[in-house]
Inverse folding.
């Protein structure tokens, strides 16, 4: 998902309608379960809280969180991606529709006052921005004291990072020009945030991207792969709390 300014055109327009098809594949569905398990642990959502998603894309994460009772505002610069998200929202239940709204905007200039949201998060979004530090500073600005900032990212090291870098060699790929972060690079993004607590990084998706039909029991597969050292993690989730 896009989070900030990338170009004057909409580079995601050719991919918006097919972006969610990945989740219908066995590997995509598996990766989605793993990533959501990590995100849920990091976000710790409570019914009635209001979250901000920066780079909300097709609304995949926002609608999932709304189903858990959270109110979500999604900011997305790609008109094509927002259109897909709005179409999905229109087909959702009335309860979900009341909890979610999508807005046009960029992560570098969020259209909200300070201390507005109990959690601010971005998932596979900072990969696509020119100035990720500026986006993170804005996310921090609109976060309430005591709230949590969460960033989910494709791990730059390991098989998954290599896969997406290879895809990005194609100028027509959605991943062309994308950046994939190491754990240290993610930590560096929040190092100078004022009032930041001790960050935590959750790791997952140890299953190789060459496995087309991973077993359905996510935790068992993940723990076995991690213990055996078969792969480095493919997905990282950084969480940091804004001290009161």
């Amino acid at each position: 998902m896009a989070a900030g300014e990338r170009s004057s055109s909409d580079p995601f327009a050719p991919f918006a309608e097919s972006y969610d098809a990945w989740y219908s594949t066995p590997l995509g569905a598996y990766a989605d379960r793993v990533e959501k398990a990590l995100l849920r642990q990091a976000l710790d959502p409570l019914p009635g809280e209001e979250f901000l998603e920066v780079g909300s894309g097709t609304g995949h994460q926002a609608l999932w969180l709304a189903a858990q009772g959270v109110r979500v505002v999604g900011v997305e610069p790609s008109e094509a991606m927002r259109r897909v998200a709005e179409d999905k929202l229109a087909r959702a239940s009335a309860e979900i529709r009341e909890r979610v709204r999508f807005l046009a905007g960029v992560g570098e200039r969020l259209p909200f006052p300070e201390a507005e949201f109990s959690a601010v998060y971005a998932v596979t979004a900072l990969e696509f921005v020119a100035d990720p530090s500026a986006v993170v500073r804005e996310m921090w600005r609109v976060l309430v004291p005591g709230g949590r900032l969460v960033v989910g990212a494709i791990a730059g090291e390991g098989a998954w990072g290599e896969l997406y870098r290879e895809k990005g060699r194609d100028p027509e790929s959605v991943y062309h020009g994308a950046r994939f972060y190491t754990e240290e690079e993610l930590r560096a993004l929040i190092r100078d945030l004022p009032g930041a607590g001790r960050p935590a990084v959750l790791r997952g998706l140890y299953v190789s991207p060459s496995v087309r039909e991973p077993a359905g029991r996510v935790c068992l597969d993940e723990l076995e792969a991690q213990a055996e050292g078969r792969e480095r993690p493919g997905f990282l989730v950084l969480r940091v709390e804004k001290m009161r």
Summary: The first helix runs from residue 26 to 43.
